[in-house]
Amino acid sequence: MFIGEGPGFNEDQQGRPFVGRAGQLLDELLASVPLRREDVFITNVVKCRPPENREPAPEELAACSPFLEDQIRLLRPRVIATLGRHSLARFIPEARISAEHGRILRWRGIVLLPLYHPAAALRSTAVRSALEADFRRLPEAVIESLRVAAGASSFADQTPSAHQARATGPTGSQPGPQDDAGLATSQDSRQQLSLF
Predict the structure, then answer these.
(1) In this structure, how many other beta carbons lie within 10 angstroms of the beta carbon of residue 138?
(2) N or C: which end of the chain has fewer CB within 10 A?
(3) What is the pTM assigned to this prediction?
(4) Is residue 41 a contact partner of residue 2, using CB atoms and an 8 Å limit?
(5) Closest to 91 (Cα-Cα) out of 144, 18, 160
(6) How far is CA 194 from the centre of its chain?
(7) Which domains does the chain have, with CATH numbers?
């Protein structure tokens, strides 16, 4: 499961996440691991575009939180890749994306992989390089999620704070609906999205 910040202009117009330039980069990054958009579920922490494309306000984040919680509950992903600081803050409020990107963390028994937002990578070659390197850790995150599912860790089912969140050392995807728009397209969405 990939979770971004919120819809931009193109996303708002089409009703699908990551369809603009940032989405094109996300597709390239997925192909590099190799995955396709059809292999993962993509959503955002806020479901509507904030006016003038500003950052989401706390009340907007709070209003959309139940929808994201329902998506997580229904899909039961083993890996959540957060895209950008707002998405990471939704899970670990005191975390900083600059410090946590590329680290394999855990939240409520789910492996969390914080990544820079693709839009930030379009503006900075250094961020793009970091994002590409961090994306290559997705297979490790999947392996770690299998360890967590097998009960190999006593850390599962804890919500990490900044001092509790920990990175793990080196440690398959199944097809499913692509994004919010495809949430109800498959009866088997929970089984199909068991990893992402």
Answers:
(1) 23
(2) N
(3) 0.77
(4) yes
(5) 160
(6) 14
(7) 2-192 (3.40.470.10)
